[in-house]
Amino acid sequence: MGPKKEKPNSPKSPKGKKDKGKSPTPPPEEPVEEITTDAVSALPPGELPGPPPVIKPEFVYNKELTPEQLNQILQLSPNLEEAARCLAGIMQLGDIRFDARNLILLEYCLGTLMFGKNADMKLKQIHVLYDMGHMILDIIRAGNPFADAERTFRNRLIAMSMKSVDKLEEPIFSAWDLQRITPYFTSTIFQHYCLYQYCFTKDHYNITRDERVWVETPMLYPLSLSKTTEELQAEEAARKAAAEKAEADAKEAAAKASQDAFALLAAEAALRAEEELKRKPLNLQEAIEMAVRDKVLEAKKALIEEYEYREKFLIDKVLQMHGDEGTTEAAAPVVPSGKEPPDAAQKPAKGKGADKKEADAEAPKSKKSSKK
């Protein structure tokens, strides 16, 4: 008989005997290399490690808020950035730019404070709202379901709105306050309950990478070419004066052009009239019309000259009268040669007939005197 063949999957002890009732020892585990944040940041862009690293940042913050700190935050409320920076320092959140969890927490707490301020609540009421917000957040961080948070919030709100019998204190919130507080928490943290719970209970995977960006420095304007404020104002005034002068010159040129155009039209009209006067008549009727027209023009010209002379004479006489008010007799106005004064023109001329009538009127007077 040959040697016995051993079964391939039957382990044996060193002595060659089977170990009854004992399980085989497992192989030793290989050490798993831990991936740190430094190793992740050292990776080239676009590449991530196979298994996600387990990073558990400490999520510890300060929940206490004194009345003085609350008053300081409310005074900074017109500038939300300053108010958020102040609240982050009080809660000891550190740099919120690189931690999304801290930023979400800060936004939630600051929003609760701003809601109380916009609702014109007292400092005590705003402080109670702030504590209630942290109470709901603690329930979320503990991983409790939505119903527990809703029931706790409702019981706390009812307790704050009821009068204390033992301490004889007035309720913190009125019925009108409850009608405003409930919609706020319902539309914020309760509406996004699952999102808040995932954010505050799950680990985060953070990658931080620094990049050095080279920025080209612009050319500086030389100080030798710079100008003072007075010089700039003088240049601006000179530009305005030049613009006004150019506008005035343009208006003057336009007025002169219009005057030249009117003068040219008048000259053309006078030339046509002169040519019309020199034109010979074609028939008897036209000759009669031209003769009448010439007579009318002559009479019109003579009339115009007469009235111009009378006007000038009267003006000179008035001026002389005003100039000789202190003298007894006024000097006679100067009459141009070949002209008679208007008063003389109005008197009837004396001739031989006039002298005879005067003699006949004086004759009877002489006869009556002789009879006497």
Automatic annotation (TrEMBL):
InterPro entries: CLAMP (IPR032727). Residues 225-260 form a coiled coil. Pfam families: CLAMP (PF14769). Keywords: Coiled coil. Residues 1-54, 326-372 are annotated as: Disordered. Residues 352-365 have a biased composition (Basic and acidic residues). PANTHER family: COILED-COIL DOMAIN-CONTAINING PROTEIN 189, CRAL-TRIO DOMAIN-CONTAINING PROTEIN. This is Uncharacterized protein. It comes from Marchantia polymorpha (Common liverwort).
